C-alpha cells in the first residue's frame, strides 16, 4: 500500500504536465495546472508539429542517443574488461587513467578548445557525444561485474585455444547482458537529456537536439513564435512548453520497461564486489 501511494505521488506531477499540455491556453494561464484538461485543446501539439523544427530536433536527439549509447557501451565494456583482467602491462595505467577524472577535471575551457580547435567538431553531433563517451563510475561498476565471472570459465576457454578477444565476445558479453543493459540505460538517459554541450558546440538551428530546443523555448518566450514557423498569430506559450516537455520525455520513459528485467540484477551484481 505504501509503495502504491508513493508511486501515485510520483506520477501526479507527470500527469499534471500531460493534462496541462491538453488544456486551453486561456484557462491554463489564468487557473494554472489541473488534474483534468478542461477545456480540452490540442492547439499546442498542432503548432508543434506544423513546422520542421521538431522533426529535425528528434532526428538529432535520436542520432546522439543511439550512436552515443552504442559507442559508450562498447568503450566502457572494453576498458572495464581490460581492467578486470589485471593484465600487468596495461591494467594499472588504465585504472589510474579512469580513476583520476573522478577526482580532477580539466575544466570547460580545455574541453571547448579540444573539441573546436583540435578535433574541429563545431556544429557536429559528435561534439555532444564525445564528452560523455565514458563515465568512470560506470566503468568501475562494469569492472566489478566482470570480476564476478568465474575465472574457471576463462581458463577452460584458454585451454581450448581461445584468445582474449574470442573469450570477451563469445563468453563474457553474453554473460554480461544485465550490466550492459544497465549502463546502456544510463548512457541513453544522459545523451537524451544533454543540452549543455549542444549549447557550447552547436550553433546551427537545424542541428539542435530536442533538449536544446526545449531550453531555448523556456529561456525565451519569443522562440515559441519561431518554432512552428511563425504562421499562427497567437501562440499558446504555456501549453506549448508542456506539450514539448511531453514529446521530449515520452520516448525515454517508454524505453525503461525494456531494460527493467536487467536493471536490478545488473546493479546488485555489479555493486557487491569491487
From TrEMBL:
Entry keyword annotation includes Membrane: yes
Lipid bilayer topology: Multi-pass membrane protein
Spans through the membrane: 57-84, 96-119, 125-146, 167-189, 238-259
Pfam family, one: BPD_transp_1
GO biological process: transmembrane transport
CDD domains linked to this entry: TM_PBP2 (cd06261)
Subcellular location: Cell membrane
Limits of the ABC transmembrane type-1 domain: 58-248
GO CC terms: plasma membrane
Keyword list, A-Z: Cell membrane, Membrane, Transmembrane, Transmembrane helix, Transport
UniProt record similarity statement: Belongs to the binding-protein-dependent transport system permease family.
Protein name as catalogued: ABC transmembrane type-1 domain-containing protein
Amino acid at each position: 500500500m505504501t509503495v502504491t501511494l508513493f508511486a501515485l505521488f510520483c506520477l501526479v506531477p507527470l500527469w499534471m504536465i500531460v493534462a496541462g499540455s491538453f488544456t486551453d491556453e486561456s484557462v491554463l494561464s489564468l487557473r494554472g495546472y489541473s488534474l483534468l484538461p478542461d477545456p480540452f485543446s490540442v492547439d499546442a501539439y498542432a503548432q508543434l508539429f506544423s513546422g520542421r523544427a521538431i522533426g529535425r530536433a528528434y532526428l538529432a536527439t535520436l542520432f546522439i542517443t543511439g550512436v552515443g549509447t552504442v559507442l559508450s557501451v562498447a568503450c566502457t565494456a572494453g576498458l572495464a574488461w581490460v581492467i578486470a583482467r589485471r593484465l600487468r602491462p596495461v591494467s594499472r595505467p588504465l585504472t589510474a587513467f579512469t580513476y583520476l577524472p573522478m577526482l580532477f577535471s580539466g575544466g570547460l575551457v580545455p574541453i571547448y578548445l579540444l573539441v573546436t580547435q583540435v578535433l574541429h567538431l563545431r556544429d557536429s553531433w559528435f561534439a555532444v557525444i564525445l564528452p560523455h563517451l565514458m563515465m568512470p563510475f560506470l566503468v568501475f561498476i562494469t569492472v566489478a561485474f566482470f570480476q564476478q565471472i568465474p575465472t574457471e570459465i576463462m581458463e577452460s576457454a584458454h585451454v581450448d585455444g581461445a584468445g582474449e578477444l574470442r573469450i570477451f565476445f563469445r563468453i563474457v558479453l553474453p554473460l554480461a547482458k544485465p550490466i550492459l543493459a544497465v549502463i546502456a540505460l544510463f548512457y541513453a538517459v544522459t545523451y537524451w537529456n544533454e543540452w549543455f554541450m549542444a549549447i557550447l558546440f552547436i550553433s546551427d538551428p537545424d542541428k539542435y537536439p530536442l533538449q536544446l530546443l526545449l531550453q531555448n523555448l523556456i529561456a525565451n518566450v519569443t522562440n515559441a513564435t519561431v518554432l512552428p514557423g511563425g504562421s499562427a498569430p497567437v501562440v499558446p506559450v504555456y501549453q506549448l512548453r508542456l506539450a514539448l516537455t511531453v514529446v521530449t520525455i515520452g520516448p525515454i520513459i517508454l524505453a525503461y520497461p525494456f531494460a527493467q528485467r536487467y536493471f536490478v540484477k545488473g546493479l546488485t551484481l555489479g555493486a557487491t564486489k569491487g
